[in-house]
Specification:
Blueprint: E1 3-6, H1 16-25, E2 31-36, H2 48-54, E3 62-67, H3 75-81, E4 85-89, H4 96-105, E5 109-114, E6 132-136, H5 152-164, E7 171-174, H6 182-188, E8 192-195, H7 205-216
Parallel strand pairs: 1-8, 2-3, 3-4, 4-5, 5-6, 6-7, 7-8
Helix pairs in contact: 2-3, 6-7
Bound molecules: D-xylitol-5-phosphate (DX5) and zinc ion.
Length: 217
C-alpha cells in the first residue's frame, strides 16, 4: 500500500498547525515539511521553531526534508522540534555518515536524498545506514514543477539494489507527483509519495489524496 505525504509548501504556512490537523483528518499518512535555507536551494521557508509549534496539532509522522547546507548543525534542533524522519541531501553534507549518526543519536529516523542530476549509486554504500531514501523528481526549491522523466530510472535502479540486498528500505519520491503520473512512478518501486500542489493546492484535499491512491490500484 502506498503512502501519501502532503507537502505543506503548498499549504497556508501562516496557519500551519491547522493545516497539519486538517490534512491528518483528511487521511494523510505523513506530513512533509520542506526546510529551505536560501543557500542549498534558491528559496527560504521555515525552521525548527515553526515545526515545534505545529507538531502538537497532528499525530501522524512529521517527515522533515532539509534542503540546507551542512544540516548536521541543526539536527538536534529539528529532533527536539518533533521530527520523526529527518532527510538530508547528500550533496549538502561534508560528512554524510556523521550526519546520519547524529540523526540516529537524536532518536530520529534518517533519510538521504539525491537531486535529479546526482547519480543514485551514491546512496548504495549508505543503504543500511538510513530508514528512507528520497529521490527528487524535480530540482528542489519550489512546488508546482513538472516531474523530470529522467529521474524515474533512478527509482527502478534503487529498488533493484534494495531487493538484491534484501533490505526493507522505503523509497520516497518528491516533486511533480500527480494523479496522472503516480501509477508510473509507483511501478518503478516508489513507496511514499510527497504531493504538494496536487493535494494542498486542491479545494477538496481528501478527494485529491483518494485520487492519488486510487490511481495506483
Ligand atoms: C520541492 C519540495 C517539494 C515540493 C513538492 O523542493 O521538496 O516537497 O513541495 O511540490 P509539488 O508536489 O507541487 O511538486
Ligand atoms: Zn520536499
Amino acid at each position: 500500500m502506498i503512502k501519501i505525504c502532503p507537502s505543506v509548501l503548498s499549504a497556508n504556512l501562516a496557519d500551519l498547525a491547522n493545516e497539519c490537523a486538517s490534512i491528518e483528518r483528511d487521511g494523510a499518512d505523513l506530513i512533509h515539511l520542506d526546510v529551505m535555507d536560501g543557500n542549498f536551494v534558491p528559496n527560504i521557508t521555515f525552521g525548527a521553531p515553526v515545526i515545534k509549534w505545529a507538531r502538537p496539532a497532528a499525530k501522524i509522522p512529521f517527515d522533515v526534508h532539509l534542503m540546507i547546507e551542512e544540516p548536521i548543525r541543526y539536527i538536534e534542533d529539528f529532533a527536539k522540534a518533533g521530527a520523526d524522519i529527518i532527510t538530508v541531501h547528500i550533496e549538502a553534507c561534508h560528512d554524510i555518515t556523521a550526519t546520519l549518526d547524529k540523526i540516529h543519536a537524536c532518536g530520529v529516523k534518517a533519510g538521504v536524498s539525491v537531486k535529479p542530476n546526482t547519480p543514485v549509486e551514491v546512496l548504495y554504500p549508505l543503504l543500511d545506514k538510513m530508514e528512507m531514501a528520497l529521490i527528487m523528481t524535480v530540482e528542489p526549491g519550489f512546488g508546482g514543477q513538472g516531474l523530470i522523466e529522467e529521474t524515474l530510472s533512478k527509482i527502478t535502479a534503487l529498488k533493484e539494489e534494495i531487493t538484491r540486498r534484501g533490505l526493507e528500505l522505503p523509497i520516497e519520491v518528491d516533486g511533480g507527483i500527480k494523479a496522472d503520473n503516480i501509477a508510473r512512478v509507483a511501478k518503478c518501486g516508489a513507496d511514499i509519495f510527497v504531493a504538494g500542489s496536487s493535494v494542498f493546492g486542491k479545494e477538496d484535499r481528501k478527494a485529491a489524496m483518494n485520487d492519488l491512491k486510487n490511481a495506483v490500484k
